[in-house]
Batch of 2 targets.
Target 1
Amino acid sequence: MSKTLQAVRGMNDILPEQSPLWQYVEDTIRAVLESYAFREIRMPIVEKTELFKRSIGEVTDIVEKEMYSFEDRNGDSLTLRPEGTAGCVRACIQHSLINRQTQRLWYTGPMFRHERPQAGRYRQFYQVGVEVFGLEGPDVDAELLMLTARLWRRLGLQQVSLQINSLGTSAARARYREALVEYLRTVHDQLDADSQRRLESNPLRILDSKNSAVQALLGDAPRLADFIDDESKAHFETLCGLLDAAGVAYEVNPRLVRGLDYYGRTVFEWVTDQLGAQGTVCAGGRYDVLVEYLGGRATPAVGFALGLERLIALLENQAVAFPDAAPHLYVVSLGAQARQQGLLLSEQLREALPALRVLTHCGEGSFKSQFKKADRSGARYALVLGEEELQRREAGLKPLRERGEQQTVAFDALGGMLAGLLDLES
Ligand code: HAM
């Protein structure tokens, strides 16, 4: 017997019972983004490989080890997007969206990284990304953080905390990099293999090391904050003041550096200790040089992306309530005529009550088996159509989730009655 095919490792199906929570989260995010006047942009899932190399950086984990790159039939090197910022910047430059104008944009969709799969870390995962172009002040950094804080409140999410840091300008980082490398060379033999490799390629990432021995060594290392230029410092101080004024709690984490090369000045992560090792739910920062670097007019920019799987896992952990997507009504019918009437009546009810969710029984089946299915569907009511009721243009309405007798309702009165019972608008 041949083995049944499975999904690719690290790539998940989102099953029907999971989708109501996904839809609730997506709808809530969209509503919050709209309340800040953000507009949606949709980019292709595939871009030229060069775009990611140039924007994320050649010596980052993503570009070195994690991209799904392939040659298409023309011999062009293409890549399944590992993130959305690069494609969003590319689209803005290509369509002249940011010439002397600001943009507040968002996008959502699958991203692809060939990482080692584990809980909260997948090879296909969904992000919602937010990017603001053309504003250089710390007020917009603060607005993005207020937006995320509002989103957690709307979703009922707890146990996430905000960490922020400033990376300064690239010149400041270059000076710091030299000092850091000089120090780390003196403790080279005590570093783990990964940090030794990063010492040559991307030493700032060592600050992010999860290895506690490495973290202990960093206690005596020079501090990035001591190398930051005055303007970046002032930017960061204003941001902290704005967050204080808005009541958004945060912690300054001087070792927060982020794994993508395009950042400068503000960086931030919303983290939780509820998801094991993959505790970053949402992350981002400023990337004021990227637009120009990719060929556009110099344009300051800031943004973030949140990982939907992690956010949803956290909401599930906290058993956050979300709207039910089960049918309101399951239409049970006996006999060919009643079945036909059931189909037509369902259509009329949908017409009258656009928010009504009706599951109409199709095919044969005894009353008993239809009621079993109605129950399993989670429907609130069964609408019962038999030959007799049909003659009188009436149907039986039976509550399935609470005690109560079946009552007889005239076809013409059904819409009004269901609207009242289910609190639906006509
Ligand atoms: P990132 O930190 O690489 O940033 O990813 C953002 C979020 O995506 C993470 O915090 C996490 O929640 C989620 N995520 C990343 N990798 C995985 C994975 N393998 N499995 C599940 N979830 C994952 C960016 O992507 C930047 N483009 C964010 C940004 C936008 N910066 C400025 N604008």
Note: Residues 43 and 88 are 7 Å apart (CA to CA).
Target 2
Amino acid sequence: MPTSVELADLEALAVALASEAGRLIVDERPEELGVAATKSSATDIVTVMDQRSEQLLRRRLLAARPRDAVLGEEEGSSVRPAGWSGLTWVVDPIDGTVNYLYGLPAYAVSVAVVTGDPTLPGEWEPVAGAVCSPAAGEVFHARRGGGAALRTRGAAAGSRRLRVLTGQELDGALVGTGFGYRAQDRARQGAVAAALLPGVRDLRRGGSAAIDLCSVAAGRLDGYYESGLHPWDLAAGQLVVEEAGGVVSGWQGRPPSGEMVIAAGPSLHGALHGALRSAVEEIGRRVTA
Ligand code: IPD
């Protein structure tokens, strides 16, 4: 684990890089933004700005932190450099790419630095990170043990510490979620959402997992869950929630991973976990009946 001084430097770098890439994807977005490639399905898209944003992040990281490794959504894992520091930067150059393509504001650049191996589910831990939501003029950031904060620019410029909401019952909770890109995953995720919906205040599908997690940290959502997330969707937002006093887990106390991510304040987390578990078990019974 880096020292507290090192963590502060890593957090500052994450903020600077997420902010710079956030400016790039706003300022240099072409008039005609096309789809450059598709991934797991025809709707899982990559734009030229996803590629340019990741290239920028990789260039800056190579210059600033040559002994760290990089895992990015578009280019995958870098080769670990000779004399590897033990740290890996996990970057999502545009989280919420479909929102970005359609001109909806909920997209972000997510930059985190983790210990362990981010390619192995549950075997890594974020230690510093930032999520820049450029259309909102917001940067959420945190470092392990140092709290979480939101920096805002524009008319409401300033910085404030983040705290999750507490004391909410499940039936009054506003819960965020998301859906993957493959049809078979979506059918199951839709069934879980339908089972949960009668028991909560409402559900939101914002379209960026990183912003959803930061919304839990900022008290804009009571909770959030999603299955199928990748480390780059999760790493920075997870740390922001934890440093804002929240709990982020997978199933049954396991670390959050692609299998499941459940994020909420400590008082709501158990109830949300329980309701999701019941929903999944009920759907499993129906499928096997
Ligand atoms: C997606 C978004 C979305 C979530 C998907 C992610 P991308 O990331 O975070 O909210 O529901 O699971 O894949 O593809 O826009 O980087």
Note: DSSP finds seven helices and 15 strands in the chain.
